[in-house]
Amino acid sequence: xxxxxxxxxxxxxxxxxxxxxxxxxxxxxxxxxxxxxxxxxxxxxxxxxxxxxxxxxxxxxxxxxxxxxxxxxxxxxxxxxxxxxxxxxxxxxxxxxxxxxxxxxxxxxxxxxxxxxxxxxxxxxxxxxxxxxxxxxxxxxxxxxxxxxxxxxxxxxxxxxxxxxxxxxxxxxxxxxxxxxxxxxxxxxxxxxxxxxxxxxxxxxxxxxxxxxxxxxxxxxxxxxxxxxxxxxxxxxxxxxxxxxxxxxx
Length: 250
Description:
Elements: H1 2-18, H2 40-65, H3 69-83, H4 91-122, H5 128-146, H6 149-159, H7 172-211, H8 219-233, H9 236-246
Helix pairs in contact: 3-4, 3-7, 4-5, 5-7, 6-7, 7-8
């Protein structure tokens, strides 16, 4: 490792020394403005830029709603509330852990998008529309595996469309809310299972305090050490993360 660092350092110094001393450094200049479209092609290009800017703006919401992030962050938030340790772990830690687990779970799906859509498009082997059509397929397959038939039937009925015969007949605008509703249902189901042991500890501690006449002593303050030691002894974060990852149908 030290030899590699030394080699990289030598290469860097050599490249820097090869530059003229008084050479002016140039930086790219990006200008975005509104100009009159003189041809239909100019109007089409401007419209495409507007669409891509809108997609980039909505990218965080798409990441949250069309991936495993929603279920993970809800379960982790319920776990933190069940422990009762205030804001520990902090919200930034919960969100970061949810993002890392999301990338881990979605890695096969992202790889399929990269191989089937992104790389062929970057090599000019397919058109932009073909890349979008190919890229949405792995996402739809992932959502279909996590979506319950009851929620899917609900939105199909509310959309007042013909009953789909195959998965390809289900529009994405119907699949997405069905997936979100199914994820919330699954997340709260897992959260209930996680919350139950902590609730039992709270009930036991409250009963003991009432029987001892210490009714003015906050039960949550007394129960917190017991919940923490139980969570540590059973390796709680390991079990929660393991259950979350295994809950996704692959």
